[in-house]
Write a structure and sequence with these properties.
- The protein has 5 helices and 13 strands.
- It is an alpha+beta fold.
- The protein folds into 2 domains: 119 residues, no CATH class; 91 residues, Nucleic acid-binding proteins (OB fold (Dihydrolipoamide Acetyltransferase, E2P), Beta Barrel), CATH 2.40.50.140.
- The strands form 2 sheets. Strands 1, 2, 8, 9, 10, 11, 12 and 13 form an 8-stranded mixed beta sheet that branches. A 5-stranded antiparallel beta sheet has the order 5-4-3-6-7, with no helix packed on it.
- It starts with a strand and ends with a strand.
- About 20% of the residues have low confidence.
Length: 264
């Protein structure tokens, strides 16, 4: 029986650097606007008004106003590394929140297929919670490259009206080809791949690339399609042992035929 697994993963044999993020598609709910309150009730319930004011201050007091018009993806792709860029897209996934530095990395995609990776985007814990799949953002930062990964760094951002949720693009046929890099940062799927043994013991997955790790370390697993085998990685610092992604990979058995979804 074929299993469908939603995974934010890395393809070690396909890209030099890709990332793993939280899957919020099924768990995130739309933000619920506060109900309007008649003036008399507002005066009678100052405590509730104070709470709302505190939340607004935490999330909006330092929010930048980006007046520049966003570029389309073709202009972004053509922009030089280290140049300033302004983009607009909808959140498709977010990685773990780094509380010590107050940042998170985020995947955006627009309605025309443009895909962007925002690395170490500054945000408060409350703003991170509000980063729900489908929400539009405008971002101003600098285009950068790290080990082949094109990303936006040193960015400021703001929410915008609108919503867009991308469907996973089937890129199974591009496995092992140079064209796969053109799908970088997009929400993609690999359909009907078979779990192959990995390591000397023929396991379904390994902790670390050589099996030297333990619970909580990166997971490595092999899949085959059209007679070729590819290695995928779940990076534990982004998808730890308590996440559905990590648990799903540990449940795999050699011979399982699965659909994988994630971000390149």
């Amino acid at each position: 029986m074929k299993k469908a697994i939603v995974v934010m993963l890395t393809g070690a044999m396909m890209l030099a650097a890709v990332a793993c993020g939280n899957n919020n598609t099924s768990s995130s709910a739309p933000a619920t606007p506060a109900a309007e309150t008649p003036a008399e009730e507002t005066e009678a319930e100052p405590a509730e008004e104070t709470v709302e004011s505190d939340v607004a201050e935490e999330t909006q007091s330092e929010a930048p106003v980006i007046t520049e018009e966003p570029m389309d993806y073709a202009a972004y792709a053509a922009a030089e590394i280290d140049s300033e860029v302004v983009i607009r897209g909808a959140i498709q996934a977010k990685q773990a929140y780094y509380e010590e530095q107050g940042t998170a990395s985020v995947y955006l995609q627009d309605e025309n297929g443009g895909a962007y990776f925002l690395y170490n985007l500054p945000c408060t814990p409350k703003e991170y919670e509000l980063m729900e799949v489908g929400k539009m953002m405008r971002v101003k930062g600098y285009k950068a490259e790290w080990s082949g990964e094109i990303e936006v760094i040193d960015a400021v951002w703001m929410f915008e009206d609108g919503e867009y949720i991308a469907e996973a693009e089937d890129v199974t046929a591009l496995l092992g080809t140079d064209e796969l890099i053109n799908k970088q940062n997009k929400f993609v799927s690999f359909k009907g791949v078979k779990i192959e043994p990995i390591g000397d013991d023929g396991a379904a997955f390994l902790y670390n690339y050589d099996g030297s790790g333990q619970e909580g370390d990166d997971l490595y697993f092999n899949v085959s399609v059209n007679g070729n085998t590819y290695t995928f990685t779940v990076e534990s610092y982004l998808c730890g042992p308590d996440t559905p992604v990590y648990k799903a990979i540990k449940d795999l058995k050699v011979g399982d035929v699965v659909d994988l979804e994630g971000f390149l």
